[in-house]
Every structure is written in structure tokens, then in C-alpha cells.
Amino acid sequence: xxxxxxxxxxxxxxxxxxxxxxxxxxxxxxxxxxxxxxxxxxxxxxxxxxxxxxxxxxxxxxxxxxxxxxxxxxxxxxxxxxxxxxxxxxxxxxxxxxxxxxxxxxxxxxxxxxxxxxxxxxxxxxxxxxxxxxxxxxxxxxxxxxxxxxxxxxxxxxxxxxxxxxxxxxxxxxxxxxxxxxxxxxxxxxxxxxxxxxxxxxxxxxxxxxxxxxxxxxxxxxxxxxxxxxxxxxxxxxxxxxxxxxxxxxxxxxxxxxxxxxxxxxxxxxxxxxxxxxxxxxxxxxxxxxxxxxxxxxxxxxxxxxxxxxxxxxxxxxxxxxxxxxxxxxxxxxxxxxxxxxxxxxxxxxxxxxxxxxxx
Length: 360
Ligand code: PLP
Fold this sequence. Notes:
alpha/beta; three-stranded antiparallel beta sheet; binds pyridoxal-5'-phosphate; seven-stranded mixed beta sheet; 360 residues
């Protein structure tokens, strides 16, 4: 079965084989070497000189870490979909005061609104979703970054469904915490997340109470500097990570970004050619997942069943958002993820299969 859901994505034979390597202890030299190599290669993917933590948790764990370590009291969340709402839930459940700048589903966060909102208070941190997986919107970090930096707040980015598939120049943008997960653009199983943390975020963390235990940046950074983790990591997935990073390096990091851009372009063109509309507004469309408005009232459940027989797992949209859209008398959506090790030809075959099943 080929997974065409926006994570987890399918894993290659080579990655699976790499993960079958004989188990090793996580306090030995061999592990330190592998960890060190992964950490250095991850820095290249993220265009950063800062630490890239390798956490044994899913991305949500490091989102919680960002809040616990960077915020004593008040945080601003920029939300334009289900995963922006996740930032809000995480921050509230950590007991923080949460202000929200909200855009409707399908729209991106706009500069003017952000400038006005940020002027209201001295926020300790501003959190945003780079790639809103539920709607296919990619917020423009280049536009947003200077506004947040100027305010003095820490800049925390959820790049769970974009990092590794889209170029994010962490240091140039001045991002203080950037979080992503293994099961999306890195084409690995779920279980790891990567978190870039700036010195500024680390300094702030030292003065934040209630950082908790598992996700304490101060402890994580201390161990990272000895090429270790404070607790037992998912060693098997780290073997896979090493293999994937080598594979990405071999493809060429620039080529990886270009392939994702091409995959997005092909998908967007396909949707338009088949009389469908893109859900994300123009100018802010994701390179890793395309969300399509079901303007032709396709029976998505039937398409899903048909595609399953052909060996594909289809994504019939983000359920909660679709329920809300339908309740508001609007069209529902479906998504075509194009992230990770997906090849152009594989995507084209999949799009043709959808066309046939949906009788477009
Ligand atoms: N943020 C975004 C944009 C996501 O797409 C997801 C998962 O789909 C998450 C956060 C949560 O990540 P995880 O499931 O790895 O905790």
C-alpha cells in the first residue's frame, strides 16, 4: 500500500533496511557518532548553526516544549487552521495566557493584522504554523519574521509538514524554535521530532519556571552537546534518519526543494485542468500538501474505496474542517500530499488513478 495521507508517508525499502541494523546501546561511542552525524546533517537541512534536538516524541511533544520553555505568562498564536488551533490547545493546557490572531481556513496570516496584534502587548513568544496541513496554506515566513523579531518576542514555528520538503532558512529568518516530525517530509516512521533551538530561546528557558522534565531545553541541550540524549532515544529510527539524510544529501538539498515545488505545481495544475479549485489562497500554497475544494461533489468515500483496491490510501480531507465546511453549506475538501521521497512519476500515476476513480 502506498500512503497518500499527509503523514505518515510510505517508507522506502532502503530506509526500512537501515532500521533493521543490530541494536546498540545509546551510551556508547557508536551511538554518539551516529547522533553527531545526524545532528550535523540536520543543521544543513535547516540552514542553522544552532542545535537541532532529536527528540523521541512526535512533533506535538516539541510544540509543548516550545511553550513550556519559552513562555512564562503570555503567548501570541497565529492560527489559520486545525494545527494553529493545536498551538492554542497546547499553550492553554500548559496554563499560559493565550492571545490568538485568527485567519479563516484557506487563508494565510497577513502582515497588517499581525502588526496590529503584536503591538497590543509585549508577547514573550509568537507561535505560528508554517504549513497548515489541514488547508494546504503555507504562511510566508519571510514576510512574518521581521515583524516578530522587531517585537522582541521569541519566534516559534511549527514546520511539521514542511521542514525537509521546503527550504526554511532558520538562522536568516531568526527563528528561535522550529519543530518538525519524522513521519512527513523526512520519510521516516513516526516517533522522532527535530527541534532547532536558538541561544536566545535557551537563555530564556533558564528563566522560565515549570519547564517540566522530559522536554526541558536546558537538559536536552546539555546532553546534545555530548552527542547524547537525556533519556533512551528511538535508536532504530535514528539509524533510519542517518540513511535518509545521506539520501537527501545525495539527491542534493536544493534538488529536494525543487522536486517538492515541482510536485506541488503538477498537483495544482492537475486540479485546475480537472475543473477543481484549490482551497488555499493564491500566493500561499504549500509545496508539500495540496488541499482541493470538492467543487464537483465527488463521492470521496467511493474514490477512497476504489483507490484502496489499486493499492493507494487516499486522504478525504481533514475531517473536522470538512464537517465545519459542510455545516456552513460549503464544499468539502480532499488532500493530495506530495512530501518526502515521492517521485514525480509516482505522483502522476496517483493523480491518474484519482481521475479514473472520480470520473473526472
Ligand atoms: N503540526 C502540523 C502542521 C501537523 O501537520 C501535525 C500532524 O499532522 C502536527 C503539528 C502534529 O504532529 P505530530 O503528529 O507529529 O505530533
